[in-house]
Amino acid sequence: MPWIEHDHADVGALVAHVADVFVEASREAIHARGQAWLALAGGRTPLPVYARLAGVGLGGVVSAIPTDERCVPHDHPACNLRALRDAFAADANIVANPLTREDGDVDASLAQARALLAVNPQAFDAVLLGMGADGHFASLFPGAANLAEGMAIDSGIDAIATLPDPLPPEAPFARISLTLPRLLHARAIHLVVTGADKRVVLRNAQHDAASKFPVAALLHAPGPHVHIHWSP
Question: Which of 40, 123, 172, 217 could form a disulfide with 167 if both were Cys (CB 3.0 to 4.6 A apart)?
């Protein structure tokens, strides 16, 4: 899979550019298909992108889901859904759909995520992903016991329940994650990477399809171009 690189002067410039891209993708989808269907990364960096989506007046319905979610109650500070809904508060036409059950139960959450994706089999109009210093994206961590299940291109599985190993001390929770094939079922994929250390990981993954870093599988998989957005 070829990729397209976009270098930005700083995080603010990156956020502004990515926000414009997602506004355009959402408006095109609403015009062409009646609504937009997005998969969106958690974390602090993309929240201004989502606030921009809610603030411009897209003129139609946008349905979004997290690319991954921690198995915690929806009112927990670590819940991606909570942050998404807060960022979208200015536009009632943008709906953030939960991957997990309200109480965060792992097995019930996995069943819910798979059911949601089964009734929404259409390609995402746009996917936004981040990348960790260990090369993970969504919650497809290099040390997870079932990483292969989440990365298998022909698995037919849309979501997995997974446990990072080692557990991040700042978020020691099981996760529900969209799989690589489900993320690749998209009209456009955007990967946000910040900092010099992460760029080293990115370069390793770009140059070696068999790299230990999971993001290498994303970059070298068949499918749409990955737009890589980097800033210091």
Answer: 172
Query: Number of folded domains in the chain?
Result: 1
- What tokens appear for 53 in the block? 């989506």
- Give per-residue pLDDT as tens, 28-55: 999 999 999 999 999 889 999 999 999 9
**HSE toward the beta carbon, residue 156, CA cutoff 13 A:** 0
SS3 29: helix
126-130 sheet: strands from edge to edge: 3-7, 226-231, 189-194, 126-130, 35-40, 61-66, 94-96
From start to end of the chain, where are the E strands? 3-7, 35-40, 61-66, 68-70, 94-96, 126-130, 159-162, 175-178, 189-194, 226-231
CB 223 within 8 A of CB 184: yes
Give the pLDDT confidence of 132-166 residue by residue, as tens digits. 999 999 999 999 999 999 999 999 999 999 999 99
Cis-peptide, bond into residue 166, ω within 30° of zero: yes
CA-closest candidate to residue 100, choices 62, 67, 74: 74
Which residue range is the domain that position 76 belongs to?
3-231
pLDDT computed for residue 2 by the predictor = 80
Cβ proximity of 231 and 18 under 8 Å = no
